[in-house]
Amino acid sequence: xxxxxxxxxxxxxxxxxxxxxxxxxxxxxxxxxxxxxxxxxxxxxxxxxxxxxxxxxxxxxxxxxxxxxxxxxxxxxxxxxxxxxxxxxxxxxxxxxxxxxxxxxxxxxxxxxxxxxxxxxxxxxxxxxxxxxxxxxxxxxxxxxxxxxxxxxxxxxxxxxxxxxxxxxxxxxxxxxx
Amino acid sequence: xxxxxxxxxxxxxxxxxxxxxxxxxxxxxxxxxxxxxxxxxxxxxxxxxxxxxxxxxxxxxxxxxxxxxxxxxxxxxxxxxxxxxxxxxxxxxxxxxxxxxxxxxxxxxxxxxxxxxxxxxxxxxxxxxxxxxxxxxxxxxxxxxxxxxxxxxxxxxxxxxxxxxxxxxxxxxxxxxx
Lengths: 178, 178
What we know:
Two copies of one chain form a homodimer.
Chain A: E1 4-11, E2 15-17, H1 34-41, E3 43-49, H2 50-57, E4 76-79, E5 90-92, H3 96-107, E6 111-115, H4 117-125, E7 131-137, E8 139-140, E9 145-146, E10 156-166, E11 169-176
Parallel strand pairs in A: 1-6, 1-7, 3-4, 3-6, 4-5
Antiparallel strand pairs in A: 2-9, 7-11, 10-11
């Protein structure tokens, strides 16, 4: 069964996208990261939220419309109640557990990678995440889409399993505790 | 002249305090960090915000009412318009530049450490911060006091100068670019 990996790049102050979903602050950081390249090979499927999908779909360069800038060629699932037309993506709606089960089935014995703050939060709250990989980019944005937001409930304990540095980017890998 | 160091401990998702200013999520992490102990020796003065001061002042254990759990014995400045009675602290009001100048003067040729999100933001926006030290604790809080929040203006570029690990805590050290 696939392990579920929440994979995100964030600013030091905890944003995965800037104001108006801007992603340009990431450019020029860590583009050649052998650790990430190895990780991508272990990913069997991607499940993302609609906002993440839309940001990707709006990219000018075609390779940026695919996960990992085109370096990933496996199945992509998007959780949304209003699926657009896109034959390259499988749209899922409804319960997060069912969505993860479907996408994890497609990932086989590889990782299912989770993209996007809202889907990740739903997965965390349903205890569906096994591991977390965060790339910390050395900028302060001050506003935008938060890595993780919730208004109630217990804090989530992680266990740091690995840290590494790729140029200016810090790679932090965790297991979810409990 | 003192260098100005913004020093903070944050959750992975970018909070320096949890809901209701809770700090208990930090307990048990990185209490014996030789790198931090060495850094504390290089700090000549502390300038904190009122909220940070109040959280400290409310601690039951007397040593926790002082910066660095009592490991720091130098002058402490607090920026506030309504100073309470506390002979151990010098209260400053008004312009951030004047406050930093006063506190930096007291720090001599050591660091002036900046505590608290609001004072740090004011310092960042006034380009008064030279270095940043962040300790990343492996928890997700989802809500609380953000490391850095602002509604407008340019993003802040940092340069990663050092990373290290102390048990489960990641220490990230930066210079402010420009």
